[in-house]
Amino acid sequence: MTQLLTREQLNIAHKIALACFALTLPASVAFLLWPAKHATESPPPKIREFFRSTGALLTMVFIVAIGALFWSFNVVLGVVFVGSCVAVIIAMRVLDATTKRSVESSFQPLSMEISDDLVLAKPIPNGWSWTLASRLGELIQLAEKEFGSRDQTYTPLGFEFSTDGPRVWYPGNRRHVLIQINSAQAKDLPQACYQLAQECVHLLSPTGDSNANYLEEGVSIVFATKYIKDQFHFDMIPANAKYAEAAKLTDQLLALDPDLVRKVRAIQPSFSQITAANILKECPSCPPDLADRLLRPF
Question: Which parts of the chain have pLDDT scores under 50?
Answer without folding.
Answer: 1, 35-43
